[in-house]
């Protein structure tokens, strides 16, 4: 990606990956993934399969990860 600074010089910007974590009940995580898909932010298949959240959440919570 290229941006222009105030002096009209082009500046190269490297894109760092960002990790999104959804932690919550299986239903909330699934509905949030679908909501993000309908807004065009992320494809459903781009998220990891939900796994038990362990110490990240409460009893019964799952976590799903998206890396963009």
- Overall average pLDDT: 89
Sheet of most strands: 3 strands, antiparallel
Largest sheet: spatial strand order? 3-5-4
Unreliable runs, pLDDT <50, ≥5 residues? none
Structural category:
alpha+beta
Task: From the alpha carbons, calculate the radius of gyration and give it in angstroms.
Answer: 17 Å
Q: Roughly what percent helix?
A: 10-25%
- SSE run: EEEHEE
Report how far apart the termini are. Answer: 15 Å
Number of helices: 1
Keyword list:
19% helix; two-stranded antiparallel ribbon; 68 residues; alpha+beta
Structure overview:
This protein is α+β, with helices and mostly antiparallel strands and 68 residues long. It is built from one helix and five strands; from the N terminus they run βββαββ. The strands form two sheets. It has a three-stranded antiparallel beta sheet, covered by helices on one side. The longest helix has 13 residues, at 26-38. The protein is elongated and about 55 Å long.
Could you write a compact summary of the structure shown?
With 68 residues, this protein is an alpha+beta fold. It contains one helix and five strands, in the order βββαββ. The protein has one helix at residues 26-38; strands at 2-4, 10-12, 19-24, 51-52, 62-67.
């Amino acid at each position: 990606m290229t941006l222009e600074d105030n002096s009209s010089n082009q500046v190269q910007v490297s894109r760092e990956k960002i990790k999104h974590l959804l932690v919550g009940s299986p239903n909330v995580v699934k509905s949030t993934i679908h909501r993000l898909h309908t807004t065009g932010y992320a494809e459903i298949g781009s998220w990891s399969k939900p796994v038990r959240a362990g110490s990240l959440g409460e009893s019964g919570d799952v976590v799903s990860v998206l890396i963009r």
